[in-house]
Amino acid sequence: MRRHASAIAVHAILGLYTLLALFPIVLVVMNSFKAKRAIFNTPLRPPLPMNFDPVGYTKVFGDSSLPLYYLNSITVTVGTIFLTLLFGAMAAWALTEYKFRWNTLLALYLSIGIMVPIRLGSVAIIQLVAELNLINTLTALVLVYTAQNLPLAIFILSEFIAQIPRDLREAARCDGLSEYNIFFHIILPLIRPAMATVAVFTMIPVWNDLWFPLLLAPAGGKQTITLGVQQFLGQYITDWNAVLAALSTAIVPVLLLYVIFSRQLIRGLTSGAVK
Amino acid sequence: MAEVRIENLRKSFGAVEVLKDIDLTVEDGSFVVLVGPSGCGKSTLLRSIAGLEPVSGGTITIGGRKVNDLPPAQREIAMVFQSYALYPHMDVAANMGFGLRFARTPKAEIEARVAEAARILQLEPLLKRRPRELSGGQRQRVAIGRAIVRKPQVFLFDEPLSNLDAALRINTRVEIAKLHKLLAATIVYVTHDQVEAMTLADKIVVMNQGRIEQQGKPLDLYYRPANLFVAGFIGSPAMNFIAGQVTQGGIDLGPDGAVTLAGLTAAAVGSRVTLGIRPEHVRIADGEGGLRLSATVELVERLGEAGYVHLRLPSGTVAVAEIRGETSLRTGDRTSLALDPTHLHLFGPDGRRMV
């Protein structure tokens, strides 16, 4: 009975939180389908046939540059995830598996990145990127985001790699696998759930970021979607239909990525390896 | 198959020496079992042979080739781990053929070798299953199969049966013995179970604190243990030890009495010794005699056709005697025990066997 009551309480709290978290998103999606007058007059009402107006969407998809901005965002996010996972897993493997002289110090150095916000180094990053002639390129964004996300990725993946039984790696060594093959054929398949977790953590801030696109790639057709949306926000006039429609469509790619990664979050992948 | 020769092998972890001057020869095609208490270095020795543990000194030769600096893969060994260490994301066939795939063995040959190993180990119906869908015994057979397909020079087993339940352990033990005959394989096998050691081994190596205490045929170790440690380690229940002092024509056991014993040299008179005798060579017998001691019954264990009586001697030493059939003895009974003179072991003050 008591158990039942506490389960209800937990679900009530979670449900309330879900409502709170979803409210702004629902509001954005709802209003993106409404006429401008209805957005201002009745912002909390769902779109009705009388005030339904897809003008925002026609504007967004009619604008020739917006699909390009979507593509830029996707390229940057996917590129960052790929590099973060690859280098993160490699570094985590090296730091957990091999005992070398500066091992602990290097691990500490890398974990400092978790504590210090990368934006503090923005000026230096701009200088560096400018000197490398990477201003207004997606490469600059991918590199900066990879650097930003590597520390946490290494931290999480190290923990998971440390949990892979030592016997498995040694069995592979006896089987004649090179260290690279052990990494790619034993370790990577076994930390897939952890990599999916890291991918989700990495992807959302990168997708939503406005700071670095504004600093490093504000022009030249290299804007990301978050930056691209800004063109509808004017000093005097804001095209709310277009802004809301752009934001609503911006949810879709990241949602798709999330679905892909969350399917990898299978627990008990290592069961059966060792008793 | 090949011979393994280990000379002056040393291994330290920092200041701690875990292997001290190990000399051991594993003859071609023989089954050598390393036994000893936890932490005696037997697993470290096995892992050194495998190449998973770098050594601090000495040489390891496999098939006439010095392998000290070779990685495990080039030593032509195969290891079966206590935890089985199967690759969880691959089915049984892939697990067994995995090593060969990276050795660029032709696909047809991999399949043939996997099929052959599966036939020997009766794994054919399980080839498409994942490790998590197998029972403990099946996993262990897959782990052995993975070793077989590589056709190694030497098989290394690290406590392969300790995760199995009692019945399965006996079955698998018999299978390993058969496999050894079938493959004429050179095997080094680590265990702490002395029944496994006694039944499987051509040669048992008893280790303690990083040293080899004694090596030899199982029954030689049983009947002629070289020192107190081996005497106490081999045999279950353990050998009884009674402390005493050599006198003219016998041994004075202090409050427990005295035993007469021929063949002691005069030089030994006065030295402290330990008398050892196995429970099956101690009989419960009332009356007096040259090799009789009086004792109080502490506990009677009845196992059916045999049993063990735990007896407390006047000095406080506890001795165990094996009995056959039923007994009317109860806790607290006073009785006496007779020692079989042909099976007495005598160990000197340094723990070594005295003739």
Number of helices of chain B: 8
Q: Major β-sheet of chain B, in short?
A: 6 strands, mixed
The CATH superfamily of the largest domain in chain A is identified as: MetI-like
Question: Kindly, what is the distance between the CA atoms of the first and last residues of chain B, rounded to a whole number of angstroms?
Answer: 39 Å
How much helicity do the residues of chain B have? Answer: 10-25%
Structural class of chain B: alpha+beta
Strand content of chain B: 25-35%
| Annotated CATH architecture of the largest domain in chain A | Orthogonal Bundle
What is the total number of structural domains of chain B?
Answer: 2
Report strand % of chain A: under 5%
Biggest sheet layout of chain A = none
The CATH level-2 architecture of the largest domain in chain B is identified as: 3-Layer(aba) Sandwich
The CATH topology of the largest domain in chain B is what? Rossmann fold
Summarize the structure.
The complex is a heterodimer of chains A (275) and B (355). Chain A has 275 residues and is mainly α.
List the helices and strands and how they pair.
The complex is a heterodimer of chains A (275) and B (355).
Chain A: H1 2-32, H2 36-41, H3 55-62, H4 65-97, H5 103-115, H6 122-131, H7 138-163, H8 166-174, H9 179-190, H10 192-208, H11 211-216, H12 225-229, H13 240-262
Helix pairs in contact in A: 1-13, 3-13, 4-7, 4-10, 5-7, 7-10, 8-9, 10-13
Chain B: E1 4-13, E2 16-26, E3 31-35, H1 42-50, E4 57-62, E5 65-66, E6 77-80, H2 92-102, H3 107-120, H4 136-149, E7 154-158, H5 166-183, E8 186-190, H6 194-200, E9 203-208, E10 211-216, H7 218-223, H8 228-233, E11 240-247, E12 250-252, E13 258-260, E14 272-277, E15 282-284, E16 292-302, E17 306-312, E18 318-324, E19 334-339, E20 345-347
Parallel strand pairs in B: 3-8, 3-9, 6-7, 7-8
Antiparallel strand pairs in B: 1-2, 1-4, 4-5, 9-10, 11-12, 11-14, 12-13, 14-20, 15-19, 16-17, 16-19, 17-18
Helix pairs in contact in B: 2-3, 2-4, 3-4
